[in-house]
Structure formats: C-alpha cells, structure tokens
Amino acid sequence: MSRMQLTVQCTGEMPLGSYLRQYAGFSAQLLRRLKAVPDGIMRAGQHLRTVDPVRSGDIILLHLPEQCAHEPNPALQVFAAYESVQVLVCEKPAGMPSHPSMLHRTDTLANWFAAYEPDCGFHLLNRLDRNTSGLCLIAKTAYAAHALSGKVQKRYYALVRPGLHGSGTVDAPIARERESVITRCVRADGKPAVTHYRVLRETARCTLLELTLETGRTHQIRVHFAHIGYPLLGDSLYGGDCTLLQAHALHCGLVQFPEPETGAEIRVTSPLRNDMQQLLDT
User: Fold this and answer.
1) Residues 6+ apart with CB under 8 A from 18
2) Is the pLDDT assigned to residue 48 strictly greater than 80?
3) DSSP class of residue 215?
C-alpha cells in the first residue's frame, strides 16, 4: 500500500522534484519524507534524487512506508463501502467515535481501521461526530491525503421537527462556547459558516433535509439548525427532541472525490440509518 508507480508525462526534461510538485500533486513535506527513505524514489532499479532530471516515459517507483499508529480492535464491525489501493470509504455507525480519546481508547473508527488495514496510514478526510452516522473517507497514504485535500464533496441528511419548507441557506458564524470545551454557538466573532438545505420529505412527525456545506466547522449543521429554531431530532446537546430518537438525526449519505492515482470520479452513497428511516416511515 505504501508503494506507487508513476509514469512521467511532461514536455522536455525537468527535475524530478519539480515534476512531482507540479504534475503529481506532491507537497514539499511529502517530498522531504520520501527523500528520508533509503529506497523512497527509484528509477530502473537506481536511487533517484529530486534534483535529477526526468523525461516523458520514465517510470518512477515511490516508497513511503506507513503504519496505522492506533491500537487495533478486530472485534469492531464497520462496513467498507468502497476500497482502492489509496483510499477506503466506510460506513461509521452512530455511537462510534472517529478517533481515540480519554473515554474512548479502543472503540473508535481508528481502532477498527488499525485491525482492518494495519500496514496503512489512517488519514481521515471527513471526521464525523460520535453520534453522526454515515460515510467516512480514509486516505491510506500521505500522498492520497494531500491529493484529496479540498476535493471531497459530501452530502448530509438530517431530521428536524415539522415546519421547515422549501430550501434555504444558513449563513451564521460559529464560535466555541466560552464556558465549554465541546459546545459551539452562533456568535458575531465566530468563524464564517454556511449551510445549504433542501426539504426532501415532510411527515406529521418530522422533516427530512438534504444538506451541503460550504465550510466545515465543528458541529456546524447541529448549531445552525438549533440557531434557526429547528434543532436536529435526538440532539440533546443543542436542544433537540429526544423522545423519538436516541442519537442525533444526522447521516452522511454521499461522498464524491477523484481517485488519487487515476483521477476517476468516485461517488459513494449510503441509505439513511434504520432509526431515521423508521421514523420517516411510521
């Protein structure tokens, strides 16, 4: 998983480092890491320096060893929805944290991945809150993580109380609550945050929303809909009705991104989790 092959495609001759930065999307930090590995960059069985010239047709072999630094937990169950050499998309269940913490040392998505892919890096590109379910995109290599930065599209689905109609945008800055480490709020001195919503379905008990984000602030969707008077169902932290759901009604149902090696556009979808769907159907 830590090895990849590149065929140079350029006009004339240029230093390898320049080619990797301009045409292959390598960062300066990633190049420094490659240079530190004895067999990090090879051509025709010979070590290659980043200052050495390359030309179209050259085959470059790159080796950057990676290993998941988290404790593996093979007992955890997570569904892998899409996988390639460079990336993995999985469906995180509600109730599972993304990363280990003081209270969750071995029951997280990172612990599952460490058991599933022990010889790969764990670069989570869309972190979901513990009780948010749905698709998580994991880059297995530092190269893939860098190549996908800013190129991942996500779509979320949420349930709120009845009364919201049509579509709209919530444009309100978000800041940390001054007395809390976890809670966020809308405040004038916060960071810009923009959420677009569209009503997909309305029932007597709830409304299903489709959501896209222009920014990615902590708890952004939850804070924005509490701010406009429609906190997510099951969201006790922000005042949502918890009589119908035990976990806040938020699900990442789509991720779309270019495959790091081929550039092919990948689109992965996930249906609503069971408790959300059952509430809509009853």
Assistant:
1) none
2) yes
3) S
**Pairing, β 41-43 against β 123-124:** unpaired
- Residues in the chain, total: 282
Known catalytic residue at 129: yes
Give domain 154-251's CATH number out of 3.20.20.70, 1.10.8.60, 3.30.2350.10, 3.40.50.300.
3.30.2350.10
DSSP assignment of 34-95 equals HHHSTTSEEETTEE--TTSEEETT-EEEEE------SPP-TT---EEEEE-SSEEEEEEPTT
Nearest to 224 by CA among 262, 196, 263: 196
Q: DSSP characters for 220-245?
A: HHHHHHHHTT-PPTT-GGGT---SS-
Give residue 31's pLDDT.
Answer: 86
Which residues pair with residue 28 across a beta bridge?
Answer: none
Predicted pLDDT at 29: 80
CATH for the 3-63 domain, from 3.30.1300, 2.60.40, 1.10.1060, 3.10.290:
3.10.290
SS3 170: strand
Given 129, 235, 241, 275, the catalytic residue:
129
- At 2, which amino acid appears? S
Is residue 166 a contact partner of residue 199, using CB atoms and an 8 Å limit? yes
**pTM to 2 decimal places:** 0.83
- Please identify which residue in the block is written with the tokens 């040392």: 105
Q: How far apart are CA 270 and CA 258, in angstroms?
A: 18
Round to whole Å and give the CA distance between 156 and 246. 19
Distance CA 185, CA 28 (A): 37
Output the average pLDDT for the chain.
92
